[in-house]
Design a protein that fits this description.
mainly alpha; about 70% helix
């Protein structure tokens, strides 16, 4: 079975873990809802207490996306574990795919659809935006780091021990890392990787921790599945998740000052544990839902199956990019819609994403040669225009 096809470009198998597709579909819908509301609702509505409560829960969407990537990593890697201990075709293919995900993240941040214009007219601020870290960068770099651990340490127990220690380190070092201006020591392409001081929305600290946490949960699930104790594992996972979330909430109110600078929403270990706990509960919940469905209808899973495709496409449609800076919903509709109008945009965008994801999925499964040809052709056209345009 292969759940990483949308991240790594590998052909999907016939059998899948339905609960992961259901989980990722829910995450995609939550992401669409949050982005639409943040974009179109008036400022006075976004300042209300109700919307702030919404922001608390919407803050889980990006971590959930990364957590989901971690869930798929073990399932797609474990069956070829030994093949990744040395440099060969399997590892080279994966590294290439991770690099493509990173480059896709860079493309999404291009200030202009012209290499020459970027080199001649690009400002310091635009270069910072170009190299700012988002979810795609986090997935790509995180996967490369995970494969580095597999390559050098080989043993599963050592690998997962190091992954667990990395989660703890990322969690508790994040407030300190965010106090450092890495731009004073490294070029923007590296400095933007570590924290959000210069605008990176999803830097490695703390967001790589969510990716690695998904790896640990997936590994434990696979071990439980081998012993036929998935239900027991998911109950335990939900309980641990509740305890972590509750512990994070309680710890935030304790009168202890450990860090020079404390920011609950961006760097707090408490908020990290809250989100990890909620993601564990969600994962367990969707496993129980999936266990009730012999085979979930494709309409309930296609957004999760094609989550990377939906992620990129909705950003281009909603916010635009270097190649459609004016032809996007934010520019066309403005940013001051009523609640009903905003809800309508969300429903229509979700429906459009559902239809296009379904079509993309069918194309990939039934007409793979055409699917691959479209990828190569679109990439070729993009590169040709990008390097030949003067404006």
């Amino acid at each position: 079975m292969h759940l990483a096809s949308d991240y790594f470009g590998e052909s999907p198998s016939k059998q899948r873990y339905a609960f992961i597709d259901l989980y990722r579909t829910a995450v995609i819908i939550l992401m669409l809802e949050g982005h639409v509301l943040r974009t179109f609702l008036p400022q006075q509505v976004q300042l209300s207490d109700t919307f702030q409560l919404h922001e608390f829960f919407h803050g889980i969407s990006a971590p959930a996306f990364l957590f989901g990537a971690g869930l798929t990593f073990v399932i797609s890697t474990r069956k070829r574990w030994e093949a990744y201990h040395h440099w060969g075709t399997a590892l080279a293919r994966r590294v290439k795919r991770f690099l493509m995900v990173i480059m896709l993240g860079v493309v999404m941040h291009l200030p202009f659809f012209s290499f020459r214009r970027i080199m001649i007219e690009g400002t310091a601020e635009e270069y910072l935006r170009l190299f700012s870290f988002d979810v795609l960068h986090c997935i790509g770099i995180g996967m490369l780091l995970l494969h580095s651990l597999i390559f050098f340490f080989k043993s599963e127990s050592r690998f997962y021990g190091l992954v667990f220690l990395t989660i703890i380190a990322v969690c508790f070092l994040t407030p300190l890392v965010w106090d450092v201006d890495f731009l004073a020591y490294f070029p923007a392409v590296l400095a933007q990787m570590f924290n959000g001081v210069h605008g990176s929305p999803f830097p490695l600290f703390p967001f790589a921790g969510f990716l690695f946490a998904g790896v640990i949960v997936s590994w434990e699930f696979m071990v439980a599945a081998e012993h036929g104790s998935e239900k027991k594992f998911m109950r335990r996972l939900a309980l641990i998740g509740v305890l972590l979330a509750a512990g994070g909430l309680i710890s935030d109110y304790l009168p202890l000052k450990i860090y020079p600078t404390y920011n609950f929403w961006f760097t707090s270990p408490a908020y990290f544990f809250i989100r990890i706990g909620l993601l564990m509960v969600l994962t367990a919940g969707f496993w129980f839902i999936g266990s009730l469905l012999a085979k979930p209808p494709r309409i309930l899973t296609v957004l999760g199956i094609e989550s990377l495709f939906v992620y990129v496409l909705h950003l281009v449609i909603l916010f635009g990019s270097a190649f459609n800076p004016m032809m996007n919903l934010r520019t066309i509709l403005g940013t001051d819609l009523s609640i009903i109008q905003t809800a309508g945009v969300f429903l229509l965008l979700t429906f459009f994403m559902l239809i296009t994801a379904y079509a993309w999925s069918i194309l990939k499964e039934r007409y793979f040669n055409i699917y691959r040809l479209m990828q190569i052709a679109s990439c070729g056209v993009f590169l040709y225009l990008f390097f030949t345009r003067d404006f």
